Amino acid sequence: MTDSSLRLPAEWEPQAAVLIAWPHADTDWAERLDEVESTYVALAAAVTRFQPLIIVVADATLHAHVEAKLQAIGADLTRIRFVELPYDDTWLRDSGPITLRDGNRFQLTDFHFTGWGGKFGAEQDDALIAGLVDAGVFGSASHQRIDWALEGGGIESDGEGTILTTWRCLTQRHPEQSRADMSSILRDSLHAKRVLWLDYGYLEGDDTDAHIDTLARFAPGERIVYQACNDAGDAHHDELQRMGEELAALRTSDGKPYTLYPLPWAKPIVDEGRRLAASYANYLIVNGAVLVPAYGDAMDNEAARIIGQAHPGREVVQVPCRPLIWQNGSLHCITMQLPAGLIG
């Protein structure tokens, strides 16, 4: 039975902090560590303009290294808290807590993190939430472990009981379960009223099996921002066209169509023969601003403009994210927002 008093807040609701884990030489970033650290430094500087930032670091040596880097660029260190914990990788959208709230009561929902269906080792990442709880980061919030594979990047919440997700991802995680089975689990575990599914949409170079946060995002005022492709010669064109049609057919809980904001398509970015997933939909909302990925493409500014339109009243800040897509993710994937009141 769903506890209707708890709910999954929308990302645009007030936040206490953003949570990240810093890349280091024992993560998959080792080969291009300097490049990716430049993105993390820019991200930390951007977040701390608006709110606190919690940085997970592997040890005291990395802590000192990161603090020195951030001090050198003038980041507001008074807004940064470091927590030393082991981790396999830095995709905290997927290994971090999905936080439900009822007023000042919080539940850290801790789904089984399997390394995106067993593609990568994930034992330390799967224990990350428990480690943060033990470190006292979350005050009196309860910790609810759920032995079912789900990543935070695989779901979108409008804060009012609607969850948006993709069939391609969740059927890969749970091939033995029907859509009805999974809808029921999502409603119960996330205390939601309904689940909306997309059957179409994918990006080459994305190893999450089509996480929703690379494709379509809820925005306030019953809007949906989504990654479109207007290049008829691109391999993504037909699939993303069909996804756009699916989004146009969705209805709000009041039976109205959503207002859609299609995002422009970046030119193909290829690295050592491999197409990378440069999605503009993978942006992060913080207090008073929206942080938007930039890839060094001619469409960067137009994407930022459209995302700003969908999130009126927020400053739009571009963050250079080309180094991130080398490892198949972007800005939203490396962050997890924490709702206001949660931090102990």
Automatic annotation (TrEMBL):
Key words, A-Z: Hydrolase
Presence of the UniProt keyword Secreted in the record: no
Origin superkingdom: Bacteria
Hydrolase in keyword set: yes
InterPro entries (UniProt xref): Peptidyl-Arg-deiminase_porph (IPR007466)
Protein name in UniProt: Agmatine deiminase family protein
Protein species of origin: Dyella flava
